[in-house]
Specification:
This protein has eight helices and nine strands. It is an alpha/beta fold. The strands form two sheets. A five-stranded parallel β-sheet has the order 2-7-1-8-9, with helices on both faces. Strands 4-3-6-5 form a four-stranded mixed β-sheet. Helix 1 crosses helix 8. The protein binds adenosine-5'-diphosphate (ADP) and guanosine-5'-monophosphate.
Length: 187
């Protein structure tokens, strides 16, 4: 059976991680891809679980050796998905979800047109800003850099296959499940 690749994107703080966590708890056969990043770990984040935390040199080395399916600079840090990791998961028969930024999502679609792109929208800009600030994981400068991306991200969302508004959390999780199970039936 063909395995599917789903890509979830959306502005920082919109609730991608929270929606995905709810989805994965109900759908344990899905694997969440672990990305590489040069960002510093937040309190509680574990190397090899949340991300593979790399130095800039290590990341650069992966770029030069063509190790990434996609990579992007986002708000001052580098993020990328290793080709090998995705290939391995698909070979093991796992359906896989990437949670990556909009630049990376469009790169994946170019290389793998069968990938399904899902964009998580905020109910309003104010809600997005409140969620990002309320998370208390970024300093003011980083919050500003992330908010500066929102307009471009919403423009890129037009190119996605699906858009889901994350207003009520349970509704957003149900909508994601509906979209994914619909796509699986078409596989
Ligand atoms: P992202 O992964 O998109 O950066 P997070 O999943 O970390 O965003 O969510 C950002 C903040 O918003 C978190 O504090 C989370 O608990 C909160 N949040 C996420 N979804 C909702 C929702 N539907 N309603 C209210 N708060 C939410
Ligand atoms: P954060 O620093 O909040 O964990 O992530 C910042 C942004 O980087 C989010 O939009 C997240 O989806 C994105 N991101 C995480 N991993 C990757 C990746 O492998 N590639 C790309 N392009 N973006 C990623």
């Amino acid at each position: 059976m063909n395995k599917k690749l789903f890509v979830l994107s959306g502005s920082s703080g919109v609730g991608k991680g929270t929606v995905l966590k709810g989805f994965l708890e109900k759908n344990p056969n899905f694997m969440l891809s672990i990305s590489c990043t040069t960002r510093k770990p937040r309190t509680g984040e574990v190397d090899g679980v949340n991300y593979f935390f790399l130095t800039k040199e290590e990341f650069q080395n992966c770029i030069e050796n063509n190790k990434f399916l996609e990579w992007a600079e986002f708000a001052g840090n580098f993020y990328g998905t290793k080709k090998k990791y995705i290939k391995q998961c698909l070979e093991e028969g796992k359906d896989i979800i990437l949670e990556i930024d909009t630049q990376g999502a469009l790169q994946v679609k170019k290389q793998m047109p069968e990938a399904v792109l899902i964009f998580i929208c905020p109910p309003s800009y104010e809600t997005l800003e409140n969620r990002l600030r309320g998370r208390r994981t970024e300093d003011e400068e980083t919050i500003k850099k992330r908010l500066e991306q929102v307009k471009t991200e919403l423009e890129r969302a037009e190119k996605f296959d699906y858009r889901i508004v994350n207003d009520n959390l349970e509704d957003a999780i149900s909508e994601l499940s509906r979209v994914i199970s619909g796509e699986m039936q078409n596989a």
